[in-house]
Amino acid sequence: MKRVLLVILSAILLASCSLIPPQPPAPVTPAEPEQKTEPPAKPLEKVPQPPKIPSISWNSIIQPLIEQLAKAQGVEAGKVLLVDTVKNNTNGSLRTLQATDAITDMVSKTQVFQIVPKKQVYYARQTLGLSSEDSLSLRSKSIGLARYLNADYVLYSVVSGNNEQRKIEMQLMLVKTGEILWSGSGDID
After folding, report:
1. Cα-flanking dihedrals φ and ψ of residue 188, to 5°?
2. Which backbone phi and psi does 87 adopt, to 5 degrees?
3. What is the pLDDT of residue 8?
4. pLDDT tens digits for range 58-79
5. CB count in 10 Å sphere of residue 128
6. Could you read off the pLDDT of 146-165 as tens digits, one per residue?
7. Contacts by 39-45 with C-beta closer than 8 Å and gap 24+?
8. What is the distance between the alpha carbons of residues 56 and 154, in angstroms, rounded to a whole number?
9. How many C-beta atoms surround the C-beta of residue 132 within 10 A?
10. Could you tell me if 157 and 86 are in contact, meaning their C-beta atoms sit under 8 angstroms apart?
């Protein structure tokens, strides 16, 4: 009996919901867009010029060092050499790729070494997970890259000092042992 009574009450309740007259929709009045006022134009400020990196004559700095390197004791002609990217340990900007290219060109002119091609170095860096901008700051990383490339020697170069007085230091290392066969340095004007 309770069930029947519950069903009847539910039916009445549901029927009463449909008896409520529908409400008319709320009136809509169109709104006018706000007028945006632009701030007055300011005069353009001049963009400051970035500091100019002075041009360095790498060939004149590197040539005497490469001549010493070619005559170094313990260096075997015809062996494979990796010219590592020049490191910048100064407090300023330095175009290290230009320096690296100048070293590579000078060494190739001596015809003492076979130089690892740039593309091969690039692909080896990618394979080892090193970006092209990574300046392998450790000698051990340079030797590891040289071993991967089957080079016999690594030419490791670092520019140090400050903007007023900079110096390039170069070291020729034997890849098998890490022994430094030759070392030289020169001032950068």
Report:
1. -105, 120
2. -95, 140
3. 85
4. 889 999 999 999 888 888 889 9
5. 13
6. 899 999 999 999 989 887 78
7. none
8. 24
9. 11
10. yes
Q: CB-side exposure of 152: number of CA atoms within 13 Å? A: 12
- Domain boundaries, given as residue ranges, for the chain: 58-188
Among 3-17, 28-42, 94-108, 125-139, name the most confident range. 94-108
C-alpha span between 32 and 101 (Å, rounded): 66
Residues contacting residue 185 through CB under 8 Å, at least 6 positions apart: 65, 167, 168, 169, 170
Q: Is 171 left (phi over 0), alpha (psi -120 to 50) or beta?
A: beta
3-state helix, strand, coil in the chain (%, to 5): 35, 20, 45
User: CA-to-CA distance for 79 and 115, rounded, in angstroms?
Assistant: 9
Whole-number Å distance between alpha carbons of 19 and 13: 10
| Type of residue at 130 | L
Backbone phi and psi for residue 33, each to the nearest 5 degrees, phi listed first: -65, 145
Chain mean position to CA 121: 16
Second CATH level (architecture) for the domain 58-188: 3-Layer(aba) Sandwich (3.40)
**Per the confidence metrics, is the pTM higher than 0.70?**
no
Q: Which helix (H) or strand (E) segment is 17 a member of?
A: helix 2-18
141 falls in which pLDDT band (50, 70, 90)? Answer: confident
